[in-house]
Amino acid sequence: MDGRFDCCRYEPSLEELLADDVMAPVLRSAGFDTQAFRDMMAETARRLDRRAARDPENRGG
Hints:
By secondary structure, this protein is an all-alpha fold. The chain has helices spanning about 15-20, 25-30, 35-55.
């Protein structure tokens, strides 16, 4: 199989993404550091969980 598809064989974890050398400048350009990005992701997950708990019939988005 062509080597260019190797990157798509698994879904990287958040830790793997944040450890990637490309992510630091991308996060900086968006005004985040790795901890601020983790915090934002955790808060987003909490809000989605609360929304799903309030409206269980509309969990799909």
